[in-house]
Amino acid sequence: MKLKKMMPHFEAIAPLELAEDWDNVGLLTGDPEQSIKKVMLAIDLTQAVFEEAKAQKVDLMLTYHPPVFEPVKKVVAGQGVSPLLYEAIRAKMAIYTMHTALDCVRGGVNDLLAEIVGIEKSQPLQAQGFDEKKMCKMVVFLPESDVASVSQAIFDAGAGHIGKYSRCSFRCEGTGTFQGEAGTNPTVGVANVFEQAAEFRLETIVPVEYLSAVVAAMIKVHSYEEVAYDVIPLLHGQTETGLGRVGDLGKPVSKKILIEHIRKTFKQKVVGIIGPTTGKVTRAAVCAGSCGSMLNQVIGQKCDFYLTGELKHHFALELQEAGVTTVCLSHTNSERIILPELAKRCRSKCDGVKFVVSRKDRDPFEWC
Predict the structure, then answer these.
(1) Which of 251, 255, 269, 334 has the smallest set of CB atoms within 10 Å of its CB?
(2) Distance between CA atoms of 167 and 160, rounded to whole angstroms?
(3) What is the pTM of this model?
(4) How far is CA 64 from CA 42, 98, 229, 288, 339, in A?
(5) Which fold has domain 106-125+244-328?
(6) Which fold is adopted by the domain 135-235?
């Protein structure tokens, strides 16, 4: 399967617009026209993982963490931010990463952690907000004869995506009024005559990065001499997606039993524990990776248990003083558990492509 045919399936699993602003997700290296036969999943692209992938003739690395966050000024063997980028390009091994898009989306890594802890009807710890820097709504007025062609043009240019749905729009019929001045050539009516015409209002959501292309595509196929359209910034919150999860357990459970369940599930002999280990858990929060910045939400939501990857020292002290029992798995151990499930989802979408989970991808720490 060509890479360009696979990427929409990846984006359906973890929509790129859900990633945090500072993140670097999507296709990082590779040719969209490249044929892909084998994909390897890993949290990090390390030298060991790269050698494993090369030995198995992998065409695409699907990584959780991007190998590089900052803009790359040069890609030279043995130099720069990530020498492995050079090696991957040289080996014609594409790299696609999901990171915080997979953190935030429903069904992603944080929902899996919430399920393991026993949280029911979870909500994000830090809900995402669609703001004017990310999303907007475009409204255009047009005759019925233009609806199909304009819709197709704007969808092809990148408009109309909401979560796992595409080609999303709203249409309603109404009456438009206008009067063209001398020298105009209106599609409906004639110049210097007040006209009332049946029109449709077509509106859809547009990522700001695609706005120029969407507007240009719309104007190109619109039949009016002067097109009436509006672009509206969206400031409302998207409460169903975001970092972390919080909620009540379906049934209260002993802290000792829950901690042991987490150890077994993540196959960890050693975990970091903060706070009391006796008593019951009734309300909990989870957040994969490094989530110390959300301590106020954890404490403010009156959680008595928190499962995460890693915490800075002063964050740990805050949780200790607040009496919140906290389990730290280490950064990558809190994320790696999603890889088998992610591989399963990808297999179901990409017929004829083999997906394998790296055996060399591991926590850089040794826990004794």
Answers:
(1) 269
(2) 5
(3) 0.71
(4) 6, 5, 40, 12, 9
(5) 3.40.1390
(6) Alpha-Beta Plaits (3.30.70)
